[in-house]
Specification:
Chain lengths: 115, 112
């Protein structure tokens, strides 16, 4: 049973550039969430995709956008990169529980460095 | 603003001891509680989930939840050096578009 996969593992960009990160959810999961984790901080929620639509969004600017494909995989796009966008970007896929909640399983992450 | 508070540590315990990690949360509507372990440079790994008041045990790990006090803890018995990591507490309100709020994590160091 394949877990959550992400690509690439590491990425180095310069300010002003654009980046696309990719995620494939765990088998049987249909919901994908993206998080940004800065050094020494907990993961901060960016947005969540379900049925190819953005279902909820955190407090991130419009430079952050995403997409979910029919096979449930997802992309995170960041435009006009800033130095402060340097972080570990985590994708989490989830499965609905009987109580209505979800348990999120994280992929290995993409380490983005903006120079 | 939903908040999840954790002492950043580091918490240092000797090998074989019990490590106690604590977390408080602000949203009284929270119903799902999770502990993740994160090794340096790696992604968070789910180790425990708890939904009802009381204790839940899984191997060397015990999660404790007290909704009245808005407090959740994780006990690690017989701590091993391999338990050295950052432990993230996550709290969510069940139903709908479930989005957990994470604390900043507590760094645990288990020394031989």
């Amino acid at each position: 049973d394949a877990g959550v996969t992400q690509s690439p593992t590491h990425l180095i960009k310069t300010r002003g550039q654009q980046v696309t990160l990719r995620c494939s959810p765990k088998s049987g999961h249909d919901t994908v969430s993206w998080y940004q984790q800065a050094l020494g901080q907990g993961p901060q929620f960016i947005f969540q995709y379900y049925e190819e639509e953005e279902r909820q969004r955190g407090n991130f600017p419009d430079r952050f956008s995403g997409h979910q494909f029919p096979n449930y995989s997802s992309e995170l796009n960041v435009n006009a990169l800033l130095l402060g966008d340097s972080a570990l970007y985590l994708c989490a896929s989830s499965a609905k529980l009987r109580n209505g909640g979800d348990t999120q399983y994280f992929g290995p992450g993409t380490r983005l460095t903006v120079l | 603003q939903k908040e999840v508070e954790q002492n950043s540590g580091p918490l240092s315990v000797p090998e074989g001891a019990i490590a106690s990690l604590n977390c408080t949360y602000s949203d009284r509507g929270s119903q799902s509680f999770f502990w993740y372990r994160q090794y340096s440079g790696k992604s968070p790994e789910l180790i425990m989930s708890i939904y009802s008041n009381g204790d839940k045990e899984d191997g060397r790990f015990t999660a404790q939840l007290n909704k009245a006090s808005q407090y959740v803890s994780l006990l690690i018995r017989d701590s091993q050096p391999s338990d050295s990591a950052t432990y993230l507490c996550a709290v969510a309100t069940s139903g709908g578009s479930y989005i957990p709020t994470f604390g900043r994590g507590t760094s645990l160091i288990v020394h031989p």
